[in-house]
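User: Please predict the structure of the protein below. I'd like the answer in structure-token form so I can feed it into my own downstream comparison script.

Assistant: Understood. Taking the following sequence of 213 residues as input:
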Amino acid sequence: MLARAALLLALALCGSAQAQQVALSGLSGNRALLVIDGGAPRFLSPGQSVGDVRLLSASGDSAVIEVKGQRQTLRVGDAPVSLGAALATQGSASVVLTADGQGHFTPTGQINGRSVQFLVDTGATQVVMAEAEAKRIGLNYQAGQRLRVTTANGAVTGYGVRLDSVRVGEATVYSVPAVVLPQPMPFVLLGNSFLSRFQMKRQNDQLTLERRY
């Protein structure tokens, strides 16, 4: 069996109908000057919140915030980051995949604009990748939420993150929940945090993903 075997992910997905835009305007010691939804800049100390936005830490030229369970590292001068949004989909209304010789669907795609090899896995709650792959594509997964995840080899500590974008064919989904695990994996599992946006139809060796909305 491929890496999908027995990844039993019992992870709750957090969602929100409306995103919040947050930018880091400056820092003073361990306090961060945040601009939220284009409002007036406000200094926050670690542990303080404004609405759903909570500052976790600040140092150097960066700060880590949390919005409804989503963690994000901000840097001074970067564009505002949207957090707390429901998944958004863009691009082609359908994608057609062809099975390999073992009957698996292993399309090449992109995560945050970096090329990856997926394995379609309807048994995975979320997109799942190995730490080595996360490092390769430059994903700051250690800023995510630490999780205990049950696998075929027992419980391990992983990280819950949100991927800026996941692309397969001409279809792109934004703000996709994912899990990063320590064990090696030959593929990135394309789980239901991406697949649930599509109606799946299989005919012979072809799988068609048709966008639901």
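That's the full token string. Residues 131-136 form the longest helix (6 residues).
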